[in-house]
Each structure stands twice: as structure tokens, then as C-alpha cells.
Amino acid sequence: MEKTIFEELGGRYERQGDYLIPCIALPAEKEQPIGLFGRRHLDYLKQHRRVTYTNLLTSGRLNSYLADIDRQAQERLERLIEGMKQAQGITEQLKAENALEWVGRMNNIRACAMEIVNTEIIYA
Question: Are 29 and 60 in contact (CB under 8 A)?
Fold first, then answer.
């Protein structure tokens, strides 16, 4: 019997009852830690970009892609927070003199920076 294209490419079959089922497995992928931003982007891909999600998953690049997105988002968030702190004149002296005001202003900056990161990287 002539080999199928699947067999020529190195595939093999497994007999289940009267049927031959191709043994298909996803390619092995190096596990990398994925943080908050990576998980948010994964949820976004699953809900709104299903084709991209499926392509990344079946090619074995999903984990590295999400780890890269997570790293980019974290770096962008830190740069934005530092830039906004300098622009608004928030210093350690303010923290020492009026801690409550410092906390309020820092929370505002962090919320603004998170919104920018979400818009530019996570949900884009």
C-alpha cells in the first residue's frame, strides 16, 4: 500500500478499533513564566482574536509570545510611572512630608499608566 502524505512527513497512525487515527501532538514549547499582563492578553486573544490564538498555539509559540508581551507591558508601565512622577514633581520629600497625598497621587499615576498599557499593548 502506498504511503500517505502524513506518513511521508514522519507521521504515524494509532489503531483504535477498526480505524487508524493519526497521532498528532502540539510541538514542545519551553515553559516561561507569564505574569498579569500576559494572562490578560491571553484572555483577549481567546475572546477576540481566535485565529491568532490558534495559530500561536499550534505552532508552539504561544508561551514565548505571551512572556514577551508581559515583559514589554511591564517595562512600559515602569517607564510611564517614572515619567509621570517626574512630570508631576512627586518626590521622596513629598512622601516624607505628606504620605497620604503621596499615596493618592501615586495611585492616580499607576491607574493612568495601567490604562495606557492596556490600550497600547494588552488589548491592541
Answer: yes
Domain that holds residue 29: 5-122
Q: What whole-number distance in Å separates Cα of residue 90 and Cα of residue 88?
A: 6
Instruction: Count structural domains, the chain.
Output: 1
Model pTM score: 0.76
Q: How far apart are the first and last CA of the chain?
A: 51
- Whether the CB-CB separation of 80 and 48 falls below 8 Å is answered with no
User: pLDDT of 52-104, one tens digit each?
Assistant: 999 999 888 999 999 999 999 999 999 999 999 999 999 999 999 999 999 99
What DSSP string runs through 28-76?
Answer: P-------HHHHHHHHHHHHH-HHHHHHHHHHT-HHHHHHHHHHHHHHH
